[in-house]
Design goal:
Layout: E1 2-6, H1 16-32, E2 35-45, E3 48-50, E4 54-56, E5 61-70, H2 75-80, H3 86-91, E6 96-100, H4 105-115, E7 119-123, H5 138-153, E8 158-161, H6 167-171, E9 177-179, E10 198-202, H7 211-222, E11 229-233, H8 239-248, E12 255-259, H9 266-271, E13 275-278, H10 287-294, E14 299-302, E15 318-320, H11 325-337, H12 339-356, H13 359-373
Parallel strand pairs: 1-2, 1-6, 2-5, 6-7, 7-8, 8-9, 10-11, 10-13, 11-12, 13-14, 14-15
Antiparallel strand pairs: 2-3, 4-5
Length: 374
């Protein structure tokens, strides 16, 4: 089967979307003999240009980075990304077009309408179903209206949600909706390293992730556990504010900001941490959750959309009320003071990802959907 994947962000931008598309494409090529062309943007960051095409899986997966080369949030670059894939999509006789996130909705929908090619669109998470932690500025409101049109107003042959929370909303607007969660390459996280007493956060530093709640919670815990440390891995627009918060609370010696780390360093960060904290306001189906589980690392996370349906409280993780540093502090304190029980959470979670969240399994379910449509 000849497929096209479309996604508007790629490295050096970080996040679950690029990982999902790369791993799904590799699994489809490996287990189902598909050939896949991935269309994404040429990007510029910190003075470097990321424009090179790339060949994966012995050429069965081809990555094409289309110009113009701009910063990720550049308006011209984002608008152009909705048009630049079209010539390739319309001329290469694909069996199916699979769009991801939001802006690729436009070329996905147009190709389906103009060429009659079957289309699939994956929702990796959306604020349309929640008001928690949402930016209420006028610009954010306009973005949500556009997102609503792309997610609910366009016709696709099928829509995939990575969680069950969105299904009711999507089924009111689309005739074919499927839940296929993310996967994880759990063998990559099977490494032997000594665990520290560090509390780990790994991910984007944005308002939705509510890392400020984690820093405040850590300041409470540290009074009783002065040897504990908080390790923050990732970049984002909130980094400066979070560093200022750390300074104002006098936590400079106990909180480290590691920035963006190479992909090969990520498994060690999970495997060496005492626990992983995910205080988000909402999620789709966070890859970081699966990565922590794959490393047998105990997880403390917000009881919110995209998280609560996957965690069994005190069985494979610990759920806390969103937006409550006090509740988060109590959960961290509990994990520090009950190491045997928290280790059991991590071991149960590792078994779960092996059974239910392999990329091979995700590819099987996705390919079965493709076959129905083609």
């Amino acid at each position: 089967m000849k497929l096209a994947m479309i996604i508007d962000d790629w490295w050096p931008e970080t996040g679950g979307g690029p990982v999902h598309v790369r791993e799904l494409s590799s699994a489809l090529a490996t287990y189902h003999d598909c050939t896949i062309d991935i269309y994404t943007r040429a990007l510029k960051k910190d003075g470097k240009h990321y424009t090179a095409n790339k060949e994966l899986e012995s050429g069965k997966v081809q990555l094409y980075r289309l110009g113009p080369c701009t910063e990720y949030w550049n308006g011209f670059g984002r608008i152009a990304s909705m048009v630049t894939p079209l010539p390739n999509l319309l001329s290469n006789n694909y069996d199916l077009i699979h769009g991801h996130t939001f802006l690729p909705a436009v070329p996905t929908r147009l190709t389906g309408a103009l060429a009659g090619t079957p289309t699939v669109f994956t929702i990796h998470g959306t604020a349309l179903t929640t008001g928690v932690g949402r930016d209420e500025s006028m610009l954010a409101g306009v973005k949500r209206l556009i997102e609503k049109q792309f997610v609910l107003g366009f016709d696709y042959d099928s829509v995939i949600s990575v969680n069950n929370e969105h299904v009711d909303l999507l089924e009111n607007h689309h005739p074919s909706v499927h839940t296929i969660p993310n996967g994880v390459d759990y063998e990559k996280f099977s490494i032997d390293t000594k665990r520290t007493d560090d509390i780990l956060y790994l991910g984007r530093l944005t308002a939705r992730k509510q890392v400020s709640d984690l820093i405040e919670a850590f300041s409470i815990v540290r009074e009783e556990h002065p040897d504990a440390n908080l390790r923050i891995v990732g970049e984002g627009p909130k980094r400066g504010d979070l560093e200022d918060q750390t300074t104002s609370l006098g936590l400079e010696e106990s909180v480290s900001f590691e920035g963006r780390v190479p992909d090969e360093a990520v498994p060690k960060h999970y495997a060496s941490a005492k626990m992983f904290a995910l205080p988000s306001a909402w999620e789709g189906h966070p890859l970081t959750l699966l990565e922590a589980w794959a490393a047998s690392t105990p997880v403390i996370a917000s009881e919110v959309e995209g998280i609560e349906e996957f965690i069994d409280h005190r069985e494979n993780g610990y759920l806390v009320s969103p937006g409550s540093p006090d509740d988060l502090a109590e959960a961290i304190r509990y994990a520090l003071e009950n190491p045997s029980q928290t280790r059991d959470w991590g071991q149960s979670a590792r078994k779960l990802v092996e059974q239910e969240y392999s990329w091979e399994g995700v590819a099987d379910r996705t390919f079965n959907l493709y076959q129905e449509l083609v």
